[in-house]
């Protein structure tokens, strides 16, 4: 019976991966109100249907405009950036997905869907937020609604727009270069093309949007944690902290330190316990350290084409039948034996709760004990996804606060913050006291890579710290290869269809 199931699954996956991923030729401006209305037909738990549509689209299969089984919204691009950072290895590619990302050939080809999908997705989302912003705040986006409900909706839309641009900046640029022209800016759902704007202009828009969002939340009396499945006041602060950290000027780093500390002290979240660190990272309600997640039920109708399908070895999908994604061997070996996070990963035979055993290979350090289905550690147990998506958690703010304080020279503050986080993971944190300067920054970055493996945060951390990074000795294609943070081979290219359909891009 088990062989029949495996053969059926294999056939389905094979057929899915053989379908051609042709580009949907459209520029950054193509999305109609009817598109959003279709997305927003089911909106039971948020007051504004269009806003719910944005959150739903963030989890939707094929939202990058292709039929690829690696195309499923933000968490899909989290896998992309984790792979390019070198910390997440593709251990096998029997069905082809991620092969040409892992070997970096796709990133060098402007016509590839790997370059097209994120661009299309994020600008699609920008247009969706613009429709809400113009509706509530006028064509210039500066109006303030009279009702508190509308203020909150507008606050979310502005924060989400900034978040989309933040991801575009991370993927399509080599870092903050104030005068480099990088991205078109759209602040309204217009039907005219826009040329690429300078980095400083894109950052100015993100800062303006997020500051306005925070002000609107405060004005509406909603400067608190909301439901942890939407971008509330403290999530907006977290995004703004990331924007300032990416900008990297001394004043921006100080602002990032202040904002991340505000989240740590004022949000009411609690750090994950040792038990939670090994509990599967699969439900918002079970993780009091989560700040923002995507609520998923069987009604969401996600299956093979999902983050869980691609990463979790217990979900009925690609990873479970061999196309696993695992940790770099060097990064795994850098985790102390008594660090609780060492137990999140394994290259040994894996046993589920029913006693079934799988061997994914001695070089495949899979996250079998960090990420596993909310339905339990049962091989092939989760067919329709019931596990939530994680977008932001409190530990990120600890690591970011330590990082920016270290970068600006506030080493005492950086060490205290890092030690508070690490005290849950290891028994003795005294080694941190002896770190300083570059050594302290490097240690914080290493802990970021370990702590946030598989969560889509490391690629941005490498770039904002301007560090080189090395692929593991267990990498399928580029073992031990070293890249600099601004290497063109590891940076997404502006897609060819954007250049063809936006004739003023280079003006």
Overview of this protein structure:
- The protein has helices at residues 2-18, 33-39, 49-57, 74-85, 99-102, 113-137, 148-172, 199-219, 233-247, 250-266, 274-277, 307-311, 329-333, 394-408, 411-422, 437-451, 458-464, 496-501, and strands at 88-90, 181-184, 196-198, 290-294, 325-327, 350-351, 357-358, 365-366, 389-393, 469-470, 482-483.
- It is mainly α and 507 residues long.
- The strands form five sheets. The protein has a three-stranded antiparallel sheet with strand order 1-5-8.
- Strand 6 (350-351) and strand 7 (357-358) form a beta hairpin.
- Helix 7 (148-172) runs parallel beside helix 9 and helix 14 (394-408) runs antiparallel to helix 15 (411-422).
- The protein starts with a helix and ends in a 6-residue tail after the last helix.
- Mean pLDDT is 91; it is low at 1-47.
Mean pLDDT: 91
The level of helicity is 40-55%
| Strand runs, count | 11
| Major sheet description | 3 strands, antiparallel
- Stretches where pLDDT is under 50 for at least 5 consecutive residues are 1-47
Strand portion: 5-15%
Structural class by helix and strand composition: mainly alpha
Q: Enumerate the strands of the largest sheet in spatial order, edge to edge or round the barrel.
A: 1-5-8
Number of helices: 18
Quick summary:
The protein has helices spanning 2-18, 33-39, 49-57, 74-85, 99-102, 113-137, 148-172, 199-219, 233-247, 250-266, 274-277, 307-311, 329-333, 394-408, 411-422, 437-451, 458-464, 496-501; strands at residues 88-90, 181-184, 196-198, 290-294, 325-327, 350-351, 357-358, 365-366, 389-393, 469-470, 482-483. It has 507 residues and is mainly α. Helix 4 packs across helix 17 (458-464) and helix 14 (394-408) packs antiparallel against helix 15.
């Amino acid at each position: 019976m088990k062989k029949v199931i495996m053969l059926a699954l294999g056939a389905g996956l094979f057929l899915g991966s053989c379908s051609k991923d042709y580009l949907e030729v459209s520029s950054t401006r193509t999305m109609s109100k009817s598109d959003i209305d279709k997305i927003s037909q089911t909106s039971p738990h948020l007051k504004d249907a269009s806003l719910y549509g944005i959150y739903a689209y963030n989890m939707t299969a094929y939202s990058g405009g292709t039929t690829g089984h690696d195309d499923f919204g933000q968490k899909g691009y989290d896998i992309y950036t984790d792979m390019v950072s070198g910390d997440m290895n593709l251990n096998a590619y029997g069905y082809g997905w991620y092969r040409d990302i892992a070997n970096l050939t796709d990133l060098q080809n402007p016509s590839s869907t790997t370059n097209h999908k994120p661009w299309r997705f994020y600008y699609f989302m920008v247009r969706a937020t613009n429709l809400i912003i113009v509706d509530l705040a006028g064509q210039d986006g500066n109006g303030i609604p009279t009702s508190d409900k509308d203020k909150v909706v507008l606050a979310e839309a502005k924060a989400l727009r900034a978040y989309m641009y933040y991801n575009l900046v991370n993927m399509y640029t080599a870092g903050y270069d104030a005068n480099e022209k990088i991205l078109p800016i759209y602040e309204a759902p217009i039907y005219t093309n826009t040329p690429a704007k300078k980095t400083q202009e894109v950052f100015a828009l993100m800062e303006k949007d997020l500051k306005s969002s925070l002000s609107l939340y405060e004005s509406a009396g909603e400067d608190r944690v909301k439901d942890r499945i939407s971008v509330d006041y403290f999530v907006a602060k977290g995004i703004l902290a990331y924007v300032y950290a990416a900008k990297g000027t001394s004043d921006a780093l100080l602002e990032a330190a202040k904002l991340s500390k505000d989240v740590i002290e004022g949000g009411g979240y609690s750090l994950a316990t040792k038990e939670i660190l090994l509990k599967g990272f699969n439900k918002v309600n079970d993780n009091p350290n989560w700040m923002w997640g995507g609520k998923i039920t069987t009604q969401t109708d996600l299956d093979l084409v999902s983050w869980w399908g691609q990463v979790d070895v217990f979900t009925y999908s690609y990873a479970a039948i061999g196309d696993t994604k695992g940790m770099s061997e060097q990064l795994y070996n850098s985790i102390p034996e008594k660090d609780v996070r060492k137990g999140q990963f394994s290259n040994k035979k894996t046993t589920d709760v029913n006693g079934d055993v799988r061997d994914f290979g001695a070089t495949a350090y899979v996250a079998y004990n960090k990420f596993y289905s909310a339905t339990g550690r049962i091989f092939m147990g989760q067919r329709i996804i019931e596990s939530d998506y994680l977008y932001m958690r409190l530990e990120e703010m600890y690591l970011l606060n330590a990082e920016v304080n270290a970068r600006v020279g506030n080493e005492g503050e950086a060490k205290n913050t890092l030690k508070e986080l690490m005290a849950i993971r290891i028994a003795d944190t005294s080694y941190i006291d002896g770190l300083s300067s570059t050594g302290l920054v490097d240690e914080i970055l290493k802990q970021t890579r370990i702590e946030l493996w598989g969560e889509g945060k490391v690629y941005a951390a490498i770039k904002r710290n301007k560090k080189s990074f090395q692929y593991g000795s267990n990498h399928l294609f580029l073992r031990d290869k070293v890249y600099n943070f601004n290497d063109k081979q590891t940076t997404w290219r502006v897609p060819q269809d954007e250049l063809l359909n936006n004739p003023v891009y280079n003006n």
